[in-house]
Amino acid sequence: KVEKPHPKEPLDPFALVADELSMLADRLRSMVVAEVPKLSSAAEYFFKVGVEGKRFRPTVLLLMASALNMPIPEAAASGAYNNFSKDLRARQQCIAEITEMIHVASLLHDDVLDDANTRRGIGSLNFVMGNKLAVLAGDFLLSRACVALASLKNTEVVSLLATTVEHLVTGETMQMTTKSEQRRSMDYYLQKTYYKTASLISSSCKAIALLAGHTAEVSKLAYDYGRNLGLAFQLVDDILDFTGTSASLGKGSLSDIRHGIVTAPMLFAMEEFPELHEVVDRGFDDPANVDVALEYL
Ligand code: GRG
């Protein structure tokens, strides 16, 4: 039960779905039990209490389910909402679980690609158990996500979430560009950000709507909401990479610029200070060039 907040107190969206979020962690651990114990412990590494991350995606999805499952008279009349049941909510919780498994798989692989040492305030899985097990644990999470997805028996939802895995890979590949034109283009940044971050959130929001039997029009609205929220989320994440500390981020700060990745804060600074273009084109292999760029931000 959630107490009604005092009008002046900000609403805590996480509190609204707190019970389901704690169930989610238990479910995720039980969904990644493997034949080989080493694989189970690698796969559940980020599902343990205290290292589950912000749980932004499952929170958004569960709130989306609450919003979309509310019966509205027109819909009830059309018969589309007859299955407002615990079963529907359980299927939507399954989308939250699948989304979190895909997300964590991408984090595991990302940390291998970036040779990162920390994640969620503890050693990254590659740092603690090695690159090989981190890659395999990511593969395993994707496999279990596929099995859960198939159990929903909804081909549109399967196709949607399978495509979003391709988008994650596409976004990550786009991020590796060394082409000058692409590195300085806001359009390229936004397209990459859609693939890398917003696609998973938007597609899973749409899946929540589709499972509830909503029309293509409503499902598209859910998708657009998730897309915009995902883009905004990544913009904030990119700013925090410059302004945050290792303690507040749970991972190293200034990671993007040190990996030569040009994000929104740098693109905006380039608009204001044209001389930054040349600095960005030199790349950031030389730490002295990182310091030069930081002076403009
Ligand atoms: C294996 C699915 C898969 C993909 C491989 C490595 C890769 C391709 C994609 C990486 C995509 C990636 C890491 C995008 C960044 C998304 C992002 C904003 C991550 C941080 O999300 P938070 O802040 O993290 O929600 P927590 O830890 O709170 O869950």
TrEMBL record:
GO BP terms: isoprenoid biosynthetic process; ubiquinone biosynthetic process
One Gene Ontology CC term in the entry: mitochondrion
Cofactor (UniProt): Mg(2+)
Localization of this protein: Mitochondrion
Taxonomic path: Eukaryota, Viridiplantae, Streptophyta, Embryophyta, Tracheophyta
Keywords for the protein's UniProt record, in alphabetical order: Isoprene biosynthesis, Magnesium, Membrane, Metal-binding, Mitochondrion, Transferase, Transmembrane, Transmembrane helix
Main location: mitochondrion
First and last residues shown, out of full length: 115 to 411 of 465
Protein name: Uncharacterized protein
GO molecular function list: metal ion binding; prenyltransferase activity
Superkingdom per UniProt: Eukaryota
Source organism of this protein record: Musa balbisiana (Banana)
Protein family: Belongs to the FPP/GGPP synthase family.
